[in-house]
Amino acid sequence: MNSNKIMRQFALVLLVGAATQVVAAPASAANLQTLERMLEAQGQSQLQVQRQLDQMSADIDNIRGKVERNSYDIKQMKERQRQLYNDVDQLSRQPVKVTPEVKDVSSVSVATYSKNMNENDAYQNAVNLILKKKDYQGATQAFEAFLTTYPESVYKPNASYWLGQLHFAQNDLVQAAKNFEVVANTKDSSKRADALLKLGVIAERSNDTVKAMAYYTQVEKEYPNSTSAKQAQSALLKLSKH
Questions:
Q1: Which residue has the higher pLDDT, 1 or 231?
Q2: pLDDT beyond 90 at 190
């Protein structure tokens, strides 16, 4: 192969290479733009996914908060129910009896019983709604009707106490306090210490710390060796730390 032919072939190769670069350059720019659009779309998609994840996380936190609040409310309700069961158990150990020898109903303590058979039956029926039927709504209505019919009954402190417990278990603090106050004003009631303690608890839940501490102190002072006094001491210690 002579030199002229070699030169012509070399020039042809250079020409083809230049042409290839000219054609390839626009193609590379187009590919780059396409890639940029793809990356931008992917970025937008990732941003949208991240927003959805953030919203899901916020929703989960909100649900978790509601679950925790519900768990706390259920725990409180179970505690009130447990206390009611304990009190009902104590009541079951003191069956209602009739004592014909009672002469003056107004002067006897709340531990004695009425000569009025209708009154005894009405009270016993209300008690049975708690002890036997576990019908707390029915018991509430029965005790309220009993106190309306027999406002001066010897059972008034006990009936008021159980009404207080029933309302307390339903978190009706206003009605609970109203009935516990009746018991607290009955000096010889066997339920007075616990009624005073419950009034302290109600005042504490109502954010009246001064009143709550006054009730707790009264329990501690007037019933120093009772279970109610120990609970009052614990409540006072807790309040003093705040």
A1: 231
A2: yes
Q: Could you give the angle at the alpha carbon of 104 between the alpha carbons of 98 and 106, nearest 5°? A: 100
Domains of the chain: 157-241 (1.25.40.10)
User: Residues 101-158: pLDDT tens digits?
Assistant: 323 333 233 335 567 779 999 999 999 999 899 999 999 999 999 999 999 999 999 9
3-state SS record for the chain: CCHHHHHHHHHHHHHHHHHHHHHHHHHHHHHHHHHHHHHHHHHHHHHHHHHHHHHHHHHHHHHHHHHHHHHHHHHHHHHHHHHHHHHHHHHHCCCCCCCCCCCCHHHCCCCCCCCCHHHHHHHHHHHHHHHCCCCHHHHHHHHHHHHHHCCCCCCHHHHHHHHHHHHHHCCCHHHHHHHHHHHHCCCCCCCHHHHHHHHHHHHHHCCCHHHHHHHHHHHHHHCCCCHHHHHHHHHHHHHHCC
pLDDT 10s digits, 58-104: 778 778 777 776 666 676 666 665 666 566 555 444 444 333 332 33
Q: Over the range 133-147, which residues count as b (16 or more CB within 10 Å of their CB) and which as e?
A: eeebeebbebbbebb
Give the percent of the chain with pLDDT over 90.
49
